[in-house]
Amino acid sequence: MPIPAYVKYIALSILFIIATVNFSKTTISIIESSKRLDETEEEVLSLESERENLEKELDYRKSDEFIEEKARNDLNLIKPGERVYVVSEELTKKVEEARKLVGEIEKSNIQKWADLFF
Fold it and tell me: What angle do CA 97, 100, 106 make, to 5 degrees?
């Protein structure tokens, strides 16, 4: 007994739809995997850059230059034969005020008017 033609077309259509759905799912999966791969590669690059920066910082911290800087700034140590000058905070404020006044004197009248209005 032969199978009617419309049943064959329906079966083929169903198989075609199933194949199309599976192909679409596979394509979407590949695209998502590609995006994840790109994100992972970017993360690897940023981590390698961070590692290089940390290695440079570690090398600097192992250097005599860093040790000397810390000794001078944090422990207030000096080398033999050096002189230490202490500047009072009050003197520093006066110097800053003088610098501001000099800056005001050096401005032209037009600049002063512009500062006043703008």
Answer: 145
Flag whether the pTM goes above 0.70: no
Q: Which structure tokens are listed for 28? A: 């979407």
At residue 11, what is the residue type?
Answer: A
3-class secondary-structure state, position 50: helix
Task: Give the highest mean pLDDT range of 21-25, 64-68, 106-110.
Answer: 21-25
Give the C-alpha separation, 75 to 53, whole Å: 27
CB atoms within 10 A of CB 76: 8
> What tokens were used for 7?
């049943």
* 72, 78 Cβ separation under 8 angstroms: yes
* 18-50 CB burial, b ≥16 within 10 A, e <16: eeeeeeeeeeeeeeeeeeeeeeeeeeeeeeeee
Q: How many residues does the chain have?
A: 118
